[in-house]
Write a structure and sequence with these properties.
This is Class I SAM-dependent methyltransferase. InterPro entries: SAM-dependent_MTases_sf. Keywords: Methyltransferase, Transferase. GO terms for molecular function: methyltransferase activity. By secondary structure, the protein is α/β, with parallel strands linked by helices. The protein has one domain: Vaccinia Virus protein VP39 (Rossmann fold, 3-Layer(aba) Sandwich), CATH 3.40.50. 32% of the residues lie in helices and 18% in strands. It has an eight-stranded mixed β-sheet with strand order 3-2-1-4-5-6-7-8. Helix 1 runs parallel beside helix 3 and helix 7 crosses helix 8. It is globular.
Length: 272
């Protein structure tokens, strides 16, 4: 009998909280619907969901609203966390059909290629080279129509940055913030994914982007009289004069701007 394969990866701190990932969840639900509905049995994976199953349960609820056939698997290395998720489902009395929890890591212990892998606050503890390797490994395990969404947020989900990747590699980068609490756009630098956080230095595209966004934010300061959303929208309009900002649905447009989001093609910030 073959011995069980050891999960690939390291145990995270497990820090989590209700609604911490609401920004990325609503972005996935709005922009990735074709992927979420792909195939007869679409599967989403919440990789490294943490000490509580709450964010996996929230992902299930938010995505099933736009993709009713979607199944969700929470994947964690720590057995106690898997047991907590499994116990939650068992105690729900059948309220969450298609939601499951299992032990594993980057190898993704599921029975079919997922149409979505959400990996949030997982790769920050890894070296940059390991984060690039994890991207490659996870992209190679996606359904042909699938997407990997990998990123980082603060403890209460007010600031976040994430990258969307397909089987071919990175596609877009999104910056998202609770606008009333934002000092300036470059405050989001501390939430850059591991593949970029050490590249926020002069000469790198992501550094230039954040510097230009700060300039646009300062220039748009008079719009603060109409609220932080108006200022953010005006700043993005200025930034779009020199950067390839996604301006139209599903990634752009006023509805996404009013949520405090900015999405650009990955190549505009890819490391040199």
């Amino acid at each position: 009998m073959a011995r069980p394969t050891k999960p690939q990866g390291e145990i995270t701190r497990g820090t989590t909280a209700p609604n911490r990932l609401r920004r990325v969840d609503r972005w996935i639900a709005a922009t990735q619907r074709s992927a979420l509905r792909a195939g007869d049995r679409p599967l989403a994976v919440d990789l490294g969901y943490g000490a509580s199953p709450v964010t996996a349960v929230e992902l299930y609820a938010r995505l099933r609203a736009v993709a009713p056939r979607l199944e969700v698997a929470g994947v964690e290395i720590e057995p106690a966390r898997v047991a907590a998720g499994t116990a939650f489902v068992a105690a729900s009395g059948g309220a969450y059909p298609g939601l499951s929890f299992r032990r594993g890591g980057f190898e993704l212990p599921v029975d079919r290629p997922p149409v979505l892998v959400r990996a949030f606050n997982v790769l920050r503890q890894y070296a940059e080279a390991d984060a690039w390797r994890a991207w490659s490994d996870l992209c190679g395990r996606l359904d042909p129509a699938g997407v990997l969404v990998e990123g980082t947020c603060d403890e209460i989900g007010r600031r976040a940055v994430w990258v969307a990747l397909g089987p071919e590699g990175p596609r877009t980068i999104t910056f998202a913030a609770h606008l009333p609490a934002l000092g300036r756009p470059s405050d989001l630098a501390e939430r850059l994914p591991k593949t970029l956080i050490h590249r926020n230095v002069p000469g790198e595209p992501v550094h230039a982007l954040l510097a230009d966004f700060d300039w646009a934010w300062a220039t748009a300061a008079p719009q603060s009289a109409f609220g932080p959303r108006a200022r953010w929208t005006a700043a993005v309009d200025l930034l779009a004069r020199t950067w390839p900002v996604h301006r139209h649905a599903p990634y752009g447009g006023r509805p996404r701007l009013r949520l405090g989001e900015l999405t650009l093609p990955w190549q505009s910030v890819a490391p040199r």
